[in-house]
Specification:
It comes from Penicillium fimorum. By secondary structure, the chain is an alpha/beta fold. It is 57% helix and 8% strand.
Length: 1048
């Protein structure tokens, strides 16, 4: 392929922009045109994956109802069919009823003709149905498949404002929610109220940019060519979609009609914008890079609010699309879009300039060669690459990144491609070699395997042969071969060359050692203004050592690219039609190219489905290891190296073992717990500097990712599995699992509720360690860990899980220490509490009586242990709603606690709190209130405001106020209690939900029905998530909401 033929970067990576006019219900016409374009595009593609507009266009923008569509297609990432359904429902809902027929009131003020609240609710429904929340920010800082902005007009200045889903350098954007942005762009004067965002008021963008094409042009220039403003060379396809040509109506003399119709039509007329733009972009029109689609006939008499004319809009649009001239234009547009393979990078202008410079140099070279052909007999450039070009897979984006660094002025001499084993570094380097050969036919390209010294030495000798370097008896040592190659390539007369060192993972090979006393292999690297070196490595440390800051890291592949790898490796491509199962398979394989190719090979050979493969991966751990240990044919990898995923990191494990024993310990430790959200504090203790070095080494191999400002780690899922396989192969897995169990018991975070963030993160790892060692012989430290985890589960309201853990603890402690040992009794006490929390009152009372009898017999009837047993029995009776018995026992407990631990002890305060509850449940409200006032004062003084016990007294006191109809005091206490409870336990904790529901009851009783219903709905949402829709608590929320809404 010649350099000036085929597809260039503009064809494959150039900007694709979509601009959508406003037009009310006629926006349906825009969507039908888009549907036709996307349907033809997807039909023409060989890919079975159905693309959405957000997959094709780099920027989607719109005004007014075109802005609504832009948000749906871009920010919410909806498909066109889904968008059409949502759009027609929204238009029908909003325009079905006028609230004012006259556009101005008697004072001359413009009034809205349609209900703005209906518009808001309809927009919120669309957003919620798309899986987002109306309160989500338009720009939430997360990367999107497409950039989106909408135009709105400032009511004060009449300047067009862009509300974006992304950030722009040197410009502070308004923090608008998705709903606010949708309302602001569609708040058409006369039809809807203006919209306030912060301190700014907006009306719809149609006044300044009903056809937003010029806004799109300016915005794209701001993003992709800020300094030069030369946008046209970067644009591959610019599509502007209108809502039909408006009727050519005379100016009306009637003042009312002039204000309400003619003035608006003059301000929002989009076709004059189109004519101006077409004149400036005429060359791009001829080059089939700019397309304007808008129905020319049939929509003139369809008003922007006439949703009932949907059939007219559809008929006129289909007639327009079926006209022969439009078919040709749509076809040209499809052929343009078909070439697009990647989203356009921010630095695309640099790519285009570099490509144009290469084209120019190539043409000059070709001219020189053709004019001097009789004298031009230069030796063909060297070529030493061991693999064929891989047509199945190449990550174009990162090949482009490397090319940008290599083929620019002031380029670096060395570049390192760094990433996890199996992520595709070799394939990127391979494609780079072939593309460089096409771009620079005179460039010598040599591939050197740096797996080990022997491989590298052999590669140097082959390079020397290619270069025609002669050896004599005095220069036959291995070091001389490297020195001669270095000297030869350093000669400027040699011309262009590119060296690719693949698998440069071993730092020892490159630094000075006994084997390489003269400074290591790094000193044998040639330098030249005409040459460049590319390394591929798994080690960030090696990458930085060899290439300094010129390191390109290959991140985890996204779903779309991973699907392409899978498709290219499969025989039966029909399997890809099930997109959900495809996504599940790729997720299990962590989007790792090597794992995907291996899985495809297994599926091809054995004829199983994606679901079948996922079930094998998710089944027994050994099944997953066996799958990932399957060898397979891969022409793009070395024959001497095994291909399976399970073994691809063995070299890296061995390197880490040699370099840092603590890093090895951390790797083994993490293989025995969950792979995500690992607290660094749980790892084997070490001095801070050593710990940082160990984590840094693991991070440099991409085995772990540091999160939460260095306090937590995420381990790659397949590395986690491969490490376990490695430990199993060296007979160390069982020992490590028991060591980790012991360490977790020792270093488990404090279980107090104020330390909830830490112990919540530790619980999943402790559960994993407990599960992995479940069949081991009993060990004492398992008892302690079971207790800690069960206590955390109780604090989090997970009583069923706590019951199982306490049950195992009792059984294990009984076996190790005996049925009446302190640890066994502690387990029984926790088990009783878990019974009470689940409403298993009979079992709880029976067990509490057993504990009390045991403590009185072992410790004495007046002992503190016996008093605690008696209080637990008291609480069990209260949970069983036997308040008479609870009061009776509580009166015995309180004096004993005061005598044993003092009046200010938390245990004494708990007993007083239980008595207060008993008074309340017996209807003794005055006594309960008096006791609660005293109790709250003591709780605040002794325990502080943020203690859960203090919050419990506050909430009970508030409920007493509700029953006394003292609603203002109740609301004040509940509002404070809810906020504190959220801080301590979180919004979704069952007790937080209960407090929120009481606050909703208070608001309802105060006549604040709207707020009450909203808060109770939030409670219902959390309750469904936590308990399920059939639970009694959830049903109580349903009943309350039904009663409140039906009575209003």
């Amino acid at each position: 392929m010649a350099i000036d033929s085929g597809l260039g970067p503009l064809d494959t990576d150039g900007l694709c922009l979509l601009s959508l006019d406003g037009g009310g219900v006629r926006g349906l016409s825009s969507l039908l045109i888009l549907k036709d374009v996307m349907a033809q595009l997807n039909s023409e593609r060989e890919d079975s994956e159905v693309l959405k507009p957000c997959d094709v266009f780099d920027l989607i923008a719109g005004t007014s109802t075109g802005g609504l569509i832009a948000i749906m297609l871009g920010r919410l990432e909806m498909g066109v069919d889904e968008c059409i359904l949502a759009y027609t429902e929204l238009m029908q809902s909003v325009f079905s009823e006028k609230i004012n027929n006259v556009p101005v009131d008697w004072s001359g003020k413009i009034v809205s003709q349609y209900d703005s609240n209906k518009l808001k609710k309809a927009i919120e429904k669309v957003i919620t149905r798309a899986g987002s929340s109306p309160t989500d920010l338009m720009n939430d800082g997360k990367p999107r498949r497409s950039k989106t902005f909408v135009c709105t007009t400032s009511k004060d200045t009449f300047q067009v404002t862009r509300l974006r889903s992304y950030s722009v350098a040197d410009e502070i954007g308004l923090p608008a929610t998705i709903c606010e942005a949708a309302l602001a762009t569609s708040a058409a004067t006369r039809f809807f109220d203006s919209v306030t965002i912060g301190n700014h008021k907006f009306v719809d963008g149609a006044f300044g940019a009903n056809n937003p094409i010029e806004e799109v042009e300016e915005e794209a220039a701001d993003i992709w060519c800020t300094a030069s403003r030369a946008l046209k060379p970067l644009v591959k396809c610019l599509i502007s979609v209108g809502t039909g040509n408006p009727a050519q109506l005379p100016m009306n003399d009637n003042v009312l009609k002039f204000l309400s119709k003619t003035l608006v039509r003059m301000a929002t007329k989009p076709e004059s914008t189109e004519r101006r733009f077409m004149a400036r972009w005429s060359n791009e029109v001829k080059g089939k890079r700019y397309f304007r689609f808008s129905v020319e006939q049939g929509l003139q008499q369809v008003h922007m609010t006439e949703f009932e004319k949907q059939s007219v809009i559809e008929s006129a649009t289909y007639a327009y699309l079926h006209h022969s001239s439009q078919k040709v234009r749509v076809r040209d547009c499809i052929l343009n879009l078909l070439e697009k393979s990647e989203k356009t990078s921010i630095d695309f202008e640099t790519t285009i300039r570099g490509h144009e410079a290469r084209l120019s140099r190539h043409r000059i070279l070709q001219t020189l060669r053709s004019s001097d052909s009789q004298y031009y007999h230069r030796k063909p450039a060297g070529w030493l690459v061991p693999f064929e070009r891989n047509s199945r897979y190449v990550d174009r984006k990162f090949v482009g990144k490397v090319k940008q660094k290599l083929f620019i002025n002031n380029r670096p001499e060395r570049i390192a491609i760094f990433g996890l084993g199996g992520i595709g570094k070799t394939q990127i380097a391979l494609e780079l070699a072939y593309q460089t050969k096409e771009l620079y036919p005179d460039c010598a390209i040599f591939w050197l395997s740096a797996v080990d010294m022997e491989s590298l030495q052999h590669a140097y000798q082959m390079v020397a042969d290619q270069l025609g370097i002669d050896f004599d008896s005095t220069r036959s040592s291995k070091e001389d071969v490297k020195s001669l190659v270095k000297a030869h390539l350093g000669n400027p007369s040699i011309g262009r060359w590119l060296l690719i060192f693949d698998n440069a993972d071993k730092i020892d090979m490159w630094i000075e050692s006994n084997d390489l006393p003269n400074g290591g292999l790094k000193d044998y690297l040639p330098t030249s203004d005409h040459g460049a070196i590319v390394f591929t490595t798994r080690s960030n440390k090696v990458a930085q050592y060899l290439a300094a800051t010129d390191v390109i890291q290959i991140p985890e592949m996204d779903e779309r690219k991973a699907t392409c790898v899978l498709r290219n490796s499969l025989i039966d491509k029909e399997l890809l039609r099930d997109s959900e199962t495809t996504r599940k398979l790729l997720s299990r394989l962590t989007f790792l190219p090597l794992a995907i190719v291996q899985a495809a090979s297994f599926i091809n050979q054995n004829g199983i489905t994606f679901n079948g493969y996922v079930e094998l991966l998710d089944g027994q751990e050994q099944n997953a290891i066996d799958l990932l240990s399957e060898d397979f044919e891969d022409k793009g990898r070395y024959k001497s190296i095994r291909n399976p995923v399970a073994t691809t990191w063995l070299t890296s494990f061995e390197q880490i073992q040699r370099q840092n024993s603590l890093a090895t310990d951390y790797l083994c430790f993490m293989a025995c717990i969950q792979e995500r959200d690992i607290l660094v504090s749980l790892l084997p203790p070490a001095p801070n500097v050593q710990q940082q070095k160990a984590i840094g080494l693991l991070s440099s191999y991409s085995f772990v990712r540091v999160t939460h400002e260095g306090s937590r780690l995420d381990m790659h899922r397949l590395v986690h599995l491969a490490t376990r396989n490695w430990l199993q192969s060296i007979n160390s897995l069982r020992k490590w699992q028991l060591d980790v169990l012991h360490a977790l018991d020792t270093f488990f975070p404090n279980t107090h509720i104020t330390n909830r963030t830490q112990w919540r993160a530790a619980v999943p790892h402790a559960l994993q360690a407990l599960a992995l060692t479940a069949r081991e012989d009993p060990v004492f430290y398992r008892v302690g860990l079971l207790y800690k985890v069960a206590t955390c589960q109780m604090s989090d309201g997970r009583r069923k899980q706590a019951e199982e853990l306490f049950g195992e603890m009792v059984k294990l402690s009984g076996t190790l220490f005996g049925p009446e040992h302190a640890w066994t009794i502690v387990g029984l006490s926790g088990l009783a509490n878990s019974y009470s929390g689940q409403g298993k009152s009979e079992k709880a009372i029976k067990l509490c009586e057993q504990i009390l009898e045991m403590q009185e017999r072992l410790q004495g009837p007046e002992s503190i242990e016996a008093t605690r047993g008696l209080f637990q029995l008291t609480a069990a009776y209260r949970e069983a709603r036997n308040y008479k018995k609870s009061q009776e026992l509580c009166r015995k407990v309180i004096p004993r606690y005061i005598k044993s631990v003092g009046p200010d002890s938390w245990e004494t305060l708990d007993a007083i709190y239980v008595l207060m509850l008993d008074y309340f449940m017996h209807g003794r409200l005055s006594d309960a209130l008096e006791l609660s006032i005293q109790s709250l004062h003591i709780h605040k003084k002794s325990l502080g405001l943020e203690d859960p016990r203090t919050v419990g007294v506050m909430s009970t006191m508030a409920i007493i106020y509700i029953h006394l109809w003292r609603l203002t005091e109740a609301e004040s206490l509940l509002t404070e209690a809810v906020e504190i409870h959220k801080r301590i336990f979180g919004s979704e904790h069952p007790e937080t939900i209960q407090l929120m529901s009481w606050l909703a009851v208070t608001w309802n009783s105060q006549g604040r029905y709207k707020e009450a219903v909203a808060l109770r709905t939030e409670c219902l949402h959390f309750s469904v998530q936590y308990f399920g829709s059939d639970h009694e608590y959830t049903q109580a929320h349903y009943s309350a909401l039904d009663a409140w809404t039906s009575s209003k």
